[in-house]
Amino acid sequence: MSEKIYCVASFKPKPGKEEAVFKALQSLEPNTHREDACIHYTVTRQIDNPFARGTSYPIVFHEIWASREEFEAHCQRKEIQDFFAQHVESPDGDIEDANVCVYTDEPWNFDAPRV
C-alpha cells in the first residue's frame, strides 16, 4: 500500500510580483530537499503552450512526500510557516491567494495486503 502524499500548491501573486514570488518559493527548495521524506519538491511557473490552454494560478509547487505524517511535519517547519505568514497571510505580502491540496494515488477501497 502506498503511503505517498502528492501536494499541489498553487499561488496567485499580486500584480507585478510574479518574479519575486517565484524567487521566494525557489528559496524554500534547498532545505526542503534535505528532508528525508521529501521525494519531489519543485516550484514551476506557467508558460504559454497551444496544447495546454487551461487556467490556473501562475506559480505551482509539485510535491511528493513519503507519508502524510511527514508532509504535515514539513508544513510545521519554521521556514514554511514564516513563508506563509509573510507572503500569504500578511496584507503586505506578495501573494494574493494560495491553494494547497493533497492527493493520494490509491483508488477508493484499495485492499492491498500489509506486509
From TrEMBL:
<dbReference type="InterPro" id="IPR011008">
    <property type="entry name" value="Dimeric_a/b-barrel"/>
</dbReference>
<keyword id="KW-0560">Oxidoreductase</keyword>
<feature type="domain" description="ABM">
    <location>
        <begin position="5"/>
        <end position="103"/>
    </location>
</feature>
<dbReference type="GO" id="GO:0004497">
    <property type="term" value="F:monooxygenase activity"/>
</dbReference>
<dbReference type="Pfam" id="PF03992">
    <property type="entry name" value="ABM"/>
</dbReference>
<dbReference type="InterPro" id="IPR007138">
    <property type="entry name" value="ABM_dom"/>
</dbReference>
<keyword id="KW-0503">Monooxygenase</keyword>
<protein>
    <submittedName>
        <fullName>Quinol monooxygenase YgiN</fullName>
    </submittedName>
</protein>
